[in-house]
Amino acid sequence: MVYERDNIHRLTPYTPGEQPLVADVVKLNTNENPYPPPRAVLEAIHEVSADQLRRYPPPTAQQFRETAAKLHGLSPEQVIATNGGDELLRMAITVYCEPGGRGLGETYPTYSLYDVLAGIHGTTVSQVPLDEDWSVPEDFAAQLNDRGCRLALLVNPHAPSGRLEPLDKLERVARAFRGVLLIDEAYVDFAESDAIPLLDPARGLDNVLLLRTLSKGYSLAGLRFGYGLGHPRIIEALDKARDSYNTDVLSQAAAVAALRSRDEARESWKKVIAERTRLTAALAARGFTVAPSQSNFVLAAPPKGGLSAQALYRALHDRNIFVRYWDAPRIHDRLRITVGTPEQNDALLAAIADITSAARSA
Ligand SMILES: Cc1ncc(COP(=O)(O)O)c(C=O)c1O
User: Which of 210, 237, 261 represents a domain boundary (last residue)?
Assistant: First the structure.
């Protein structure tokens, strides 16, 4: 017997990047930060008492909301804490998209989880292809309005290309779109600008929601902590759809300590950015086409006439070097490579040189 709803029965679940159980892997496949989290984060976790664990956690993570609000120059009513950025996506789809229609709009390509969450909710997805240079078409909002979308998901910097759309473009989309614009800033800590200015009341925008996560910039992917920033009315609506205790007491303590250690985290962002520049240049010198990235990964197409991206992905995997490959339109000829430490990036470059020279002499 099939008991589940039809949309769940038909759903292809999200495929996460491989998480190897062995340690000797150069892991450049899931955009984790290669540097450790700020020291104060571990101390804060250790300081959580038995009594705090015995009780339920503060339901709205109020201390975190106040810390994040202060950091971003907002009010706590503009902040919601979530179990990873992924939970914010699920909440936004639940709150704004109608099951059976009037669903979400997105670009193609984009973060593949969006479609899975829409499939779970049973709402429609409208895709607008990105331009050749991975930029968002000027009529993105108009196309979504025509299709009755209630929620637009824009990842900025874009995944998987790493391209950053400027603030004025995002503002034009927000003004033209007749639903809520969620700007997924999962990778914004590695970029030169963010979309916080769109939340300034002086701009008069009431339909912008920003997604943030501690997974990348603060090296805390294992913690599962993200948050949303938006107009108080948006936050209030999302809060109604929140699980009663969606973030636990350990992660709340760690998340507060993480934001207070922003300067320490920033040191890791600087190192990643410097390596991103070096890796981009080194890949380009080997004939790869690399999209300019403002993120902690690069999207790189191997030189034409040599090994395909898929063959290179497999050959790297055989050497315990993990990168990401999708057999999907527009990206099947590229690899998405997380920027690692200098040693990890050197290992990757050496392996690429080795694999390609072995293929040439074969
Ligand atoms: C584009 C994008 N958005 C959001 C997330 C959510 O991150 P998390 O749930 O770890 O906070 C990710 C994670 O990989 C991502 O790539």
Answer: 261
